[in-house]
Design brief:
This protein has 15 helices and 14 strands. By secondary structure, it is of the alpha/beta class. Bound molecules: thiamine diphosphate. Its EC number is 4.1.1.79.
Length: about 375
């Protein structure tokens, strides 16, 4: 039996259309089948895939993740504060390492404790160790979508033993390449606050899909322009541009992300994922106050480097700086193929604005109805 193909068939029966992947050696005959059957989004870090998957789902897609079980470790905060509090589905098909015929000592500790971790976090899981378990895999994927929860399917390496799947072919070799890193790295001094900037761009944001960084930036957006097409983050710090990326991949309307320097430096791989998928309808505004604003303006190291250049290095070609609200509005209004990255210096100062009086599930529901 070709077990790898049988798993693909199950995913298709469940209506999965997009698969986020980060490889495990035990799945090397399974992974080549994914781009042949689904849209594949190869990841550089599983946690970023959690954000992209949330955006894909909210835009009407049906994503799943195929990763190594270790990747669940670096995704736990995002799974818990994003998927578990906004009630979002995500089937995670994980190659379960550390338990069956494991030769790598480093895999054993987390692999052994993983079921207990999932149990304690209220994340349902299933162990698939033989082809006869595949009907249960199908049920688990369906349940993830029916009950709006992540559902982990732990594939024991045992399940692939004796499979008739073809051996994976060798990968194409890297080609010569060059990049245009030409951008201004002179950062003008900040003269306006993030709230000044958000208020000034309200005419542009009105009616658009807007995703805002955790904490004060979301509260400032709520105070300046509350609308159902705003997705306010209340947790999963560092995922805002990943969610925006997923939303922009999953549907056609323009998506504007309000990100921060701390968040980008926390998860810079998200910039690479944006460049890789290159959704033309995505604009990331990076409010750079050289501080962790929401937690009391503790300095970040963004003052020692250039975020716009970082975006270029990651492969985002359409970048600019906008030092005033007027410049930001005109940069936004200037047509240009995305993904776009606008680097905006702002004062390290938070507006005194109230909390958002909506639950996470309410934010998600009205957002999904509106977009
Ligand atoms: C994993 C994790 N670490 C730390 C925090 C606490 N935290 C919340 S917001 C924030 C800083 C936000 O800074 P930035 O992303 O630059 O946005 P700003 O508020 O400055 O606009 C931090 C450290 C968190 N929520 N999650």
């Amino acid at each position: 039996m070709n077990v790898e193909q049988a798993v693909i068939d199950v995913m298709k029966q469940c209506g999965i259309d997009t698969v986020l992947t980060l490889p495990c050696d035990r799945m090397k005959n399974f992974l080549p089948l994914i781009p042949k059957n689904f849209r594949e989004i190869p990841l550089s870090r599983e946690e970023g895939g959690v954000g992209i998957a949330a955006g894909l789902y909210m835009s009407g897609k049906k994503p799943a993740m195929v990763i190594q079980s270790t990747g669940i470790g670096n995704s736990l905060t995002a799974l818990s504060s994003l998927h578990k509090t906004y009630d979002l589905p995500l089937p995670i098909l994980a190659s379960w390492r550390g338990v069956y015929k494991e030769s790598i000592q480093a895999q054993v500790h987390f692999g052994k404790f993983l079921p207990g971790v999932l149990d304690n976090m209220g994340i349902p899981y299933l162990v698939a160790e033989k082809p006869a378990d595949l009907p249960a895999v199908r049920k688990a994927i369906d349940q993830s979508y029916k009950e709006n929860t992540p559902y982990v399917i732990l594939f024991s390496p045992k399940i692939w033993e004796g499979s008739t799947a073809k051996e994976a072919e060798s990968a194409p070799q890297p080609q010569e390449r060059s990049f245009d890193l030409n951008c201004s790295t002179r950062m003008p001094r900040a003269t306006e606050t993030r709230f000044d900037m958000i208020k000034a761009i309200v005419p542009y944001l009105r009616g658009k899909i807007v995703v805002s960084n955790i904490g004060v930036p979301s509260k400032e957006l709520y105070a300046a322009l509350d609308q159902p097409t705003n997705f306010y983050m209340t947790g999963s710090w560092g995922e805002v541009s990943a969610i925006g990326n997923g939303l922009a991949i999953g549907q056609q309307k323009e998506v504007v992300v309000l990100d921060g320097d701390g968040s980008i430096l926390f998860n810079p791989n998200t910039l690479g994922m944006i460049a890789q998928e290159s959704p033309e309808n995505l604009t990331v505004i990076a409010f750079d106050n050289s501080a962790h604003g929401s937690t009391g303006n503790q300095p970040t190291y963004s003052s020692r480097m250039d975020l716009e250049l970082l975006a270029r290095v990651y492969g985002i070609g359409n970048t600019t700086k906008a030092a005033t609200a007027k410049e930001l509005l005109s940069a936004l209004e200037k047509a240009g193929k995305g993904p776009r990255f606008i680097h905006v210096p702002v004062l390290a100062k938070n507006a005194d604005v109230p909390n958002i009086p909506l639950s996470n599930v309410d934010i998600k529901k009205r957002f999904m109805e509106a977009i």
